[in-house]
Protein 1
Amino acid sequence: MRAKYSILSKSSLINWIKKYNSHLDLNSTKGRINHMPKNDTRSLNEKIEVVHFCIGKNYNYIDTMNQYKISYQ
């Protein structure tokens, strides 16, 4: 696929995918990609708080990700 679309490196493709999944502009130079820790140790109440925050922000996932340092997934 890289050759078909003249993508020079695998790392460029990976970075574009990360930006796309983080809802960033593909031309953005910001490196604002949040990653969830491998072992999410949040309690049920903390997870409920995140959901309430997101709903209260009219499902603004970017604000929720930044506020709680979590990934979109």
Protein 2
Amino acid sequence: MYENETNIKCTRKCFLAEWSSLSKTHPVYGGSFYIRWGRKTCPPTSTFVYRGQMTGPSWLSEGGGPNWQCLPEDPEYNTNTPRASNSFLRAAHYRIGGSVQDHRIPCTVCETMQRVSQLMIPGKTRCPTSEWTLEYSGYMVSSAETESHSEDFKTSNYFRGNYVCVDERPESLTSRSHGRAGPQLYYVLAACGDKVSGALNNCPPYKHANALSCVVCSK
């Protein structure tokens, strides 16, 4: 074994030992953050930071940011707030069927105390090893692709959002809404098959048009 390899292993071992010692004397030392999409509370493995609603730009427009925002339920404004209408955040809605169809989507920001690494893994239902803590599991969602919708939808849906993991037991903020100009979230499916454009390389085990699972893990 080379000397530098020994030093690397020693450094990692020493770091973990120091971290363990600090965790015992400083119970709130360090951590990371993640958003639990589709739920109003944090799991018991994490600490609550704030809750809000999932938002983004209109799916009818070309502008706005490319990522979803968890907008707090108790906003604060600067004294000199400019009044402009260049870009709006609008309520996101489920388009995944079931009892939450067309409902607004809650979100909660959570902190993983003493676990500094956080990872969302698409296509999995479990964390990589027992060293990881499962925060929550769910399904991959994002804005819809235009090819599978009507001509009107094709010409108007410009917005491309994030891929996020929505909780497998989704909650809603309100009853069904009829105004859905905001982001609309659909299941993300695997593309497989010889005649499918851009088909995944490993089909199987991936199955065509099956909703992809996901997990959020911390360590």
